[in-house]
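Let us work through a complete example step by step.
Step 1: write down the sequence.
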Amino acid sequence: MPSIKYWELIADKVSDVFSCGVRLANYLFMSAYINLDIYNASGFDPGAPRWKRMLWVLVSSVFFQNPIPKVSRFRAALLRAFGASVGKGVIFGRNVYISFPWRLAVGDHVWIGDDVGILSMGQVTIESNVCVARRCYLSTASHDFRRKDFKLKVAPILIRQGSWIAIGSLVVAGVTIGEGVVVSAGSVVLRDVPANCLVRGNPAQIVREIFRDPGGAKAAIGVSRPQVSGESPSPRSATARAVA
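Step 2: predict the structure and record it as tokens.
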């Protein structure tokens, strides 16, 4: 009798075939070109009155988008004043861009590196002990290229605790990064990432499952075969671990 793993694999293959069919249908019915002359974002709710948005542009330009280091507490206080939720011990690097602070929630002991961009047209939630390295970009907005009017699409981003988004990576709208994830430098994350995984590339693919010592003294990475895209990580035996 086939194992449960076998039926899970069959279900994944059926899901892949269905997804290909949906993409083909979308392609066949998409517009021949984009006409930006008819673009209209009037249906988007910015979440704050115009005066508040204009004031934030001024404050952000003076106190955030500049080369001055070591003023994280002051920057955190400004973000809270504009409606953001910011925990304790949060570090903000230089030249950080945040579009709408009232749609930003940051946990405790988070690092936001130099030149990080956060397009928070939708909610952005960064849980505690997360490192968002320099030049990363979190974008909650995109456009429907299949439509002639290039319709705006907005979806939230959630980064769970203990994750590291390495230098120069992009996380797009609607993505959830699981706990303890490492996103390799320069990766483009287009879909959800399960907990305790190393992902890499454009689009980002699961490379390994990460194992961590309960006491926090050691971190190890599974050295068995790289996982196939879309495959969920599974527990490995102790013999399939190597100290990173």
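Step 3: interpret the result. Residues 223-231, 234-244 have pLDDT under 50 and may be disordered.
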